[in-house]
Amino acid sequence: GSMFPELDKTHVREIVFVVDKAHMGASGSVSIETAGLAYAPVIAPDPGLTPADVTVLNEARHVYPIADFNGASAQLSQQSSSLYTLTYNLPNAGNWAVGLTSFDDYGTVGVVETKDMSSLTNLVMGLKLAGGSGRIKVEFEDANRAKGIVYLDNVTTAEQFYSISMNAVRESNAGLDLTRITNINVVVEKN
User: Fold this and answer.
1) Which pLDDT tens digit goes with each residue over 134-190?
2) Contacts 24+ apart (CB under 8 A), 52-55
């Protein structure tokens, strides 16, 4: 039986764990293990990586900018097969802009081309900001529009390289199909 028979388990909005001093003491820590929680790993730059370590994405067909419709803007300039610059303006809280790398050939109607990234251990990319420092979101989007998300921490004005573990991407969304990736989205956000 249930401790709370009146509880409708199909409409639970949140679960709150409460630690009270009378039962747990004045300080300490509690590890809570469960499954299915929303999780996006945070990845620090790896000072041991160089431009020679960057992952080559030969099948990428398009690189273009996208911005939200709430005052944000984004422009993209591609300097070479291995470098593009996303220039963005995020005037309002909640604004975002994306540098999208797509494996889909938009000329093939009814077909979505993808890249199989399931055998890739890590994807290495380099990033730098024109000014300041921050955290950049990277989304791996599959043909069903499921997204695996990681955050690249401490992006600064000096180019740094990040090794994104594909296991970490998988952990952020168990439903992500790494055999059918359509886009890699580099997202800047204003909180």
Assistant:
1) 999 999 999 999 999 999 999 999 999 999 999 999 888 888 999 999 999 999 999
2) 53/124, 53/161, 53/163, 54/82, 54/124, 54/125, 54/126, 54/161, 55/120, 55/122, 55/123, 55/124, 55/125
